[in-house]
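Re: your question from the hallway

Yes, I did run it. Sequences:
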Amino acid sequence: MSPVMEHLFFGLAAVVATVSSLLVVTRRNPIYSALFLIVMLSAVAVIFMLLDAVFLGFMQLLVYAGAIMVLYLFVIMLINPRDGDLSDEGGAPERAFAAGVALLIFSLLSFAISHSQQVEKLDSAGSIPALAAVPDSHGSVASFGLELFHNHLLVFELTSVLILVGIIGAVHLAMRRRSTSRSPSTVGDGQVTVDV
Amino acid sequence: MELTISRAEILAILPAGILFITGLVQLFSDLGKNGDDTRSEKTHLAMIGGAGLLLALAALFVQGTAASTGSLYAGAMTDDLFGRMGAGVVMMTALFCTLMSGGYLASSANNRAEFYALICFCAGAMALLCQATNLISVFVAIETLSLAVYVLAGYFKENRSASEGAFKYFVLGAFSSGFLLLGMAFIYGTTGGSISFSDIAASNGQGDSLFSIGTLLILIGFSFKIGAVPFHSWVPDVYQASPTLAVGWMAVAVKASSFFALCRFLLFTGGGQELAQILAAISVVSMLLGNLAALNQRSLKRMMAYSGIAHTGYLLIPLVIVVSGEGASAGASIPFYLFAYAATTLAAFGVITAISVGTDRDDVRDLDGLARNRPFLAIGLTIALISLAGIPLTAGFIAKLMILQGAVSSGFLTLALIAIITTLISVYYYLRPVVAMWFREPRSSFDLVPAPWGVIFTVAVCAIATVFIGIFPGWLVDLSRLSVETILG
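Structure:
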């Protein structure tokens, strides 16, 4: 792909990702929010692929935009929130404060970006710099696996603990026990139901 | 390419690994036992936890003051004295919390293995956080421990206010993780793709404005975790709503491990004058707001929350000195302070746990005449409170002295002065419960249940440790100095 095309695609994916993530937080209907989240995640997958991280891009599509978002939609539909269930978030003062903080962070970041020598260095390379060559194996499953298990082994293993903690926590918080209201005759059955 | 794991790498993760296995054993040992015995003490869970934690501490002590192993797991972690001290604080805290849990949870009809196992998982993640030397391992360790703490905070899910507090903590915690991650991304970008602390320190991106913003964002992320003003708003509410034991765990272990990780990060990256000024401002505001807001709190847990914010302010003073480059040795007061703070705060929360068992009350007035009914608890809480106030012959005094010495010798007189003034203010609210305990008549309407044995043990050991460190501080001071000296080597 030529550099121009690549930048064009990147711009497109970036705009789609930004706009759809804005729509995620502004929609009142959670189903719409979830659908826009799928759009946003897909756009990010495109960016991954433009960076030659093909494996990561497809994982993003399959796992996030696919599996996890299906789960999201299921949960939203099971809870089935009505319009009245979602109240407004605070009044005008809260909104003004939030906007002020957001503006502050935005101006801080834009100031830092405009004064950064690193960004300047990138700018001096021209408006559409030539793309650095990457080896053929870059972003492949094999190189991804090697990177993961050689340089990030500890973190990879720690992530399994993270997920385990998440599962234990979710089961504990979501489990509804009969013990609180059961009659003496059912004592000891230890049955539990999971309340989604 | 072959995957090899060296002996040093195995030894380095041994303590944390033992804790993860202990947590799993606890979960499995409790399978099928949730019938009708949720009101029993379930001593087997505390026994397994205690054994696992002692084993992990032994694995830590075997390493002792051995020299740093350098970077392990491709720069993800290291095994040095500094990290071992952090892991030591966390594991001892976990040991005492586990010992206290049996009696505390039995009164709540919610005594299940999850609580014990989450403390073990959390302690393992914290031990790794203290030894983490790259941005990714720091982040994953923080996420693991945070997730466990969110669940612990909302452990009593029948309690509405506890669930609300836990949810608030969860949302703000997730928000702060966003800051942390954004900061890490900026640092990754400006240092040419380095994630390990030593690579970051060696890269030439340090002077870049985006690098400073990245460090600032990481600082904001950590400020949420350690409860520094202006990112403290969750602290009092969550402390008041959560189970007392989970609060004790949060107050000591989360703060200690975050400070160890932050101190290591800042020792490597420095940060420059602007960052030092921002940090100094956060420190001053934390000291002032924490101490002033604690003055008229009726709830002991809320008072401890504001007191925790104030202590975060004191602990930030050595970090200001480190960041400004005036002397990395000032960092030595951080391990010492956290050891002293852990012993003191655990003794205090032990007594608060004893009072709240079965009654779920924590009002200062509930302490009236405690010395007559429960002289032992009264002595323990008195020692803890005078140590928190920084009165001589206690660990808290030596800890504050070290921080003030460091600040004065590096020329941060204003910070030292504000620390002294706010410490004087704090004496009022720390001594108010003491007066209530010793000089007021017991309230007949309020009956204490006998304190569980684990709580009595914890209060005794921590109170004795507080006094012991206060009278013989030399060995711990030397250890702290040595740990900070070896961190960069």
